[in-house]
Amino acid sequence: MAAAQKPAKRLGGMAEALAIAGDLGFPAPPAQEDQNTDKSDDLVRVLRELTVVQRNIANLQVELQGRKDDKNIAHLTHVSEMEKKCESLARITAILKDVIQNKKVLPVLLTAPYTI
């Protein structure tokens, strides 16, 4: 051996396999920092997607609460609900008028024995 040449190191295991692959022209695997950067980029992307989903959920919750509130106050605000109330009041008024007009007959009817 010549003095100018360094003796070959025994790397062993994965390090030796990577050195042999490099000598054969295969690209070296990315450094650990690059993998961490890729993982960080993936994490940031997932967090952004999660934020978008959370925002959509919040918007849907607001819409759902609005619909619940609308349902709870529909009798105060919607014309169709007010029309239903007016019709109901008209029926009740007609019944009460009939009762008032026949108030003399009612005690007789109520005290009469029930026949089968």
Automatic annotation (TrEMBL):
InterPro entries: HAUS2. One of its GO terms (cellular component) is mitotic spindle microtubule. GO terms for biological process: microtubule nucleation; microtubule organizing center organization; spindle assembly. PANTHER family: HAUS AUGMIN-LIKE COMPLEX SUBUNIT 2 (PTHR16039:SF1). This is Uncharacterized protein.
